[in-house]
Amino acid sequence: MNNFIKSLSFAAFVTVSSMSGAANAQKLAVVDVQQVLQSLPQVAVIEQNIQAEFASQMQEVQRLRSDGNFLVEKLQRERATMSEVAITDLEGQINVLGQQLQQKGQPLQQDVERRTEEERRKLFALIQQAIDSIAEKENYDMVLNSNAVPFSDKKFDISEKVQQQVSRAN
Questions:
Q1: How many whole angstroms separate alpha carbon 49 and alpha carbon 52?
Q2: By CB neighbour count within 10 A (0-12 exposed, 13-18 middle, 19+ buried), where does 129 fall?
Q3: In terms of residue numbers, what domain contains 52?
Q4: CA-CA distance, 131 to 78, in Å (whole number)?
Q5: Distance (Å, whole) CA 31 – CA 154
Q6: What would you measure as the largest C-alpha separation in the chain, in angstroms?
Q7: Distance of CA 98 to the CA centre of its chain
Q8: Residue 22 has pLDDT above 70, yes or no
Q9: pLDDT tens digits along 91-140
Q10: Does the residue 88 lie in any domain?
């Protein structure tokens, strides 16, 4: 029985040793996806396109904000010399502008965020394609997000390669 346990222990040791040797032979890489995304020239183009797409609505919201600020400042400046009717009228105008700003501003903000997220998903798909392509070409067994790894040597970082390939894609 003792010999059986020794044999089993030796077999387990050999198996674990060979597995750790195989793990050392794996080719690993890391990529900082957020850094790649932020460094892409496409990001600035996308931001400009979104700004252009919603320019008229943004101008309208900005106009409402400016008009509201002007009326609030006017009320603060001239309140002491205004009649109660004029104060009430001005406060009513400020409230109406505030409601219009809220009715137009919140949906606009949601639309801009939605479009931005759509474009980010497209860029993330391009980044993933670049990672897959590089991993296949260079025979990487595993590519990890650098944020998930507490430490890695710079020689494992393929972020620059990914950034260059995605930049060339558009």
A1: 5
A2: middle
A3: 26-169
A4: 63
A5: 10
A6: 106
A7: 31
A8: no
A9: 999 999 999 999 999 999 999 999 999 999 999 999 999 999 999 999 99
A10: yes
